[in-house]
Amino acid sequence: MNWLNYKTGIRGIYFRMDADTEKASICIEIVHDDAEQWDKHFSAFLQYKQLLHQFLNEDWNWQRLAMDEHNKSLSRIYKELKGVNVLDTSCWPAIIFLKPRIVALDEFWVVVKENFQQL
């Protein structure tokens, strides 16, 4: 599975990972031109918040309205590890924090995806 291009199968919902010279992160992003559909998707995630927490065994940060690097509005549910540098090999063991979260996020999505397809 290629996690950099994880295909959720739902237009406007993306699972993204990133690691740079300051942090590593994993997130669910909701981006949609149709504000009503965008709100439906975020509201659906809110309904599944407890289930997501059960799969992840931790709380993630929730932002109903955020901006990406291109100043485009989006919603984001994410976990971030600051103070790591992907170019520093000594940080790589810490950046591996992404792996169990990726697996758990995929397991969660298998359970709930069908419900999002019906929105």
Structure, explained:
The protein has helices at residues 35-47, 49-56, 92-95, 98-117; strands spanning 13-19, 23-30, 61-67, 73-82. It is an alpha+beta fold. It has a four-stranded antiparallel β-sheet with strand order 1-2-4-3. A hairpin with a 5-residue loop joins β3 and β4. α2 runs antiparallel to α4. It starts with 12 loop residues before the first strand and ends with a helix. The model has no long low-confidence stretch (mean pLDDT 91).
Number of helices: 4
Q: Low-confidence runs (pLDDT<50, min 5 residues)? A: none
Give the proportion of residues in helices: 25-40%
Note the beta-strand portion: 25-35%
What shape does the CA trace take? globular
Summed over residues and divided by their number, the pLDDT gives a mean of 91
How far from one another are the termini? 26 Å
Give the topology.
Layout: E1 13-19, E2 23-30, H1 35-47, H2 49-56, E3 61-67, E4 73-82, H3 92-95, H4 98-117
Antiparallel strand pairs: 1-2, 2-4, 3-4
Helix pairs in contact: 2-4
Task: Offer a few descriptive terms.
single chain; 119 residues; alpha+beta; four-stranded antiparallel beta sheet; globular
In short:
This protein has four helices and four strands, in the order ββααββαα.
